[in-house]
Amino acid sequence: MGELQDKSGMAKLNIKDFQELNTWAGQELPEGDWVVVTQEMINDFAKATQDFQWIHVDVEKSEKYSPFKKPVAHGFLSLSLLSKMLGDLVKVNSVKMGVNYGLNKVRFPSPVLVDSRVRLLSGIQGIEAYGDNGVKVLWNCTVAIENSDKPACVAEFISLMFE
Fold first, then answer.
1. pTM of the model as a whole
2. 107-137 pLDDT per residue, tens
3. Which of 67, 70, 124, 143 has the largest CB neighbor count within 10 A?
4. Domains in the chain: how many in total?
């Protein structure tokens, strides 16, 4: 049931096809690798979204006025990492194309301070057929923050995959 990899740059869990993917429904997946959230990432996200609130991008003002004493990442930055983190975690070898379909129940329980490490904790809540050659997957996703009891983001993430 799925071949676990730990080689850099490869998915941790390599799954042959949809038939094997279905065996993971209702199961927890391996923990994802840590990702450092840098000021450069935060600044790039601010540029992409046009959200330049000082608590994210002004290091000096954050150190002086923020209750966190350093910049914090945008909540949506944590959410946007889900696609990358899932891709680093799971690869279904038969898939020709995948797309984001939507989200349910998104919450941001805790801020991510600059230079924090985050990782994905996830499972597959459900899988259903989609069209002639696809599946709709409902992923339970938690973006955990190292040394924090509260996660950065909790979401039900829906993706489509096609063979």
1. 0.90
2. 999 999 999 999 999 999 999 999 999 999 9
3. 143
4. 1
